[in-house]
Amino acid sequence: MKVRKAINDDIEQIKRILRDLDLVSENVEDHLQDFLVLTDNKRITGCIGIEIYEKVALLRSLGVVPAFQKQGYGLQLLQRIEVLAENKSVSSLYLLTNTADKFFSKFGYATINREDAPLTISKTREFSELCPTTSIFMKKEL
User: Which of 13, 84, 116, 131 has CB 3.0 to 4.6 Å from 44, enough for a Cys bridge?
Assistant: First the structure.
């Protein structure tokens, strides 16, 4: 398996993976420059992205095709996107999740109140309209 930067030709495969996993697939194309994909050289088997807003970013769309789950690929994608974020001078990563809070907490993400979201994060579509208000909001300092 190989992790690489996403390209325009990947958009439909990324969206299909996210929809199949019941994750937000809207506006992937708006942030494709900060998406990574996991590939077995024939097809995309996982993805992750961030939306960068100066020194903070919203981590989004971490998904691995079920046949490749539980093999460490989610962590591999997470570590790679954190490096990408650091290289772009991001100091804090935020995320919303309905099901993966235990996964993220193992890797330094802490649950915080939605009211504590930076203004730029609270204005994102994921935060303000696409993710339910019951989603768990998490943060990690890089």
Answer: 13
Reference 97, options 44, 138, 38; nearest CA is: 138
pLDDT one-digit tens code per residue, 51-84? 999 999 999 989 999 999 999 999 999 999 999 9
Average pLDDT (97-126) is 94
Please report where in the chains the tokens 């460490």 appear, as a residue: 72
Check: CB of residue 90 under 8 Å from CB of residue 121.
no
Cβ neighbors of 17 (< 8 A, separation 6 or more) are 44, 45, 46, 47, 63, 65
Sketch out the chain's domains with CATH numbers: 2-141 (3.40.630.30)
Joined tokens for residue 31: 């942030």
Alpha-carbon 90 to chain mean position: 14
| H/E element, 59 | strand 56-64
